[in-house]
Amino acid sequence: MHTATLQTRASPQTIANVDGLDHLMASPRRLLEGETLYGEGEKCQSIYAIRSGTVKSTVTLRDGREQVMAFQIAGEILGLDGIASGRHASTVVALEETHVSAVSYADLCEMAAGNAKLQHVISRLLSREIVRDQELMLLLGCMSAEQRLAGFLLNVSRKMHERGYSASEFNLRMSRADIGSYLGMTLETVSRSFSALQKQRVLDVDKKSIRIREPEALVHAFEAQVH
Amino acid sequence: MHTATLQTRASPQTIANVDGLDHLMASPRRLLEGETLYGEGEKCQSIYAIRSGTVKSTVTLRDGREQVMAFQIAGEILGLDGIASGRHASTVVALEETHVSAVSYADLCEMAAGNAKLQHVISRLLSREIVRDQELMLLLGCMSAEQRLAGFLLNVSRKMHERGYSASEFNLRMSRADIGSYLGMTLETVSRSFSALQKQRVLDVDKKSIRIREPEALVHAFEAQVH
DNA sequence: CGGAAGATTGAGCGTAGTCAAACCGAGTGG
DNA sequence: CCACTCGGTTTGACTACGCTCAATCTTCCG
After folding, report:
1. What residues contact residue B12 under an 8 Å CB cut-off, 6+ apart?
2. How many Å lie between the alpha carbon of A26 and the closest alpha carbon of chain B?
3. pLDDT tens for residues B116-137?
4. CA B107, B113, B117 angle in degrees (round to 5)?
């Protein structure tokens, strides 16, 4: 049975701790808030590992609106969606000062050629991304606004915890509009859902600063039936 | 700019035409309508290529409801979401008589170890799956019921065309309830959307038999602004 | 201080969900 | 042969969740 907890469990096998991979990494690149790492349609020659910071991945719809596809933080990998076509399928923009390491895809392939373990790590990374996307599809396909926000917060909370930060207190780096785009709802509905969860004493919300008062109530809000 | 046309372009590099891969395939397995290929949580030892027929991939939500994650037809690959965790993330059920070939994942890895081309094919397959999922997320996140159905039909139409069948006339193998689950709406809304498109003379609908009268009007219905 | 950008809150409305009834075709049994 | 059921589909009436538009408030920064 699927738990629908939006979990993409931390793996002991991240791309970062494969022997020798460090040699492939160029010196980290620094991005300031608002700077673009790469744009949709650009040639995809590298994938990137986030060393620190937060980014959003977006696509531009034909009517010009920007759709947020993902938020990524330290430890996550960018650019996996570009392997299929050789061009990036999304645009990545920093939401705060962010450091990324590029890994040439060609070099990575070359190194993987003689390294079955690395091959497997790559496949798992890609597969994990598929699972992650499917969890978001579930959330978008069959949950209410408040459930979506609860799921989003639980996901952020878990990621923060995995990286050694507090699971219950953190600052969101993205705007209400970005959250709304990601979750398939308007920024007003995001704001109202925050207020509702605050009124229920589940959260303390002050702009971008979030404190989870009742983690278990938040899980409950996420899992509640959609009647 | 993202075209949001739900296209997962046919690649000349399918897993089926890599030299020597045929040897890895066990004799095809035959599934009757309603039969299960594998279940969520089962150990993932193989991936599968569909030789003929149609299946749906589903996950079971904790309240017992079944959520359709994908429909797949001949030429598509099943089981890629299980590589990350070693267990299948979804359940696959045949929607008609279907033939599939299993490829042992261990054998595939072994063969890939000395074959850079095959490695690349595998990575591209996985990456393509990510792109496909992201297109569905777009559809779920920011489109109206009628747009979703139009997008779904365009997708089916393109897949049929790629496989040498008519792009304008085909039989759907899945129920209204399955389509609704996949598109994040109720079966009643699916039915109403079909009726609306028929009233607009875009489609002829008779139960599962679909004829696209005005392909370009269907594209228009798909791309129309969501005010 | 004024302006801009982001966030919150309210009022009204529309799309899609819910509940219910009717319909249809296929299969079964009297 | 017809009555019956059963699953799937269509359609209608009502409701509600979330969108739109608008006003207000806060924070930040020139």
Report:
1. none
2. 22
3. 888 889 999 999 999 999 999 9
4. 105
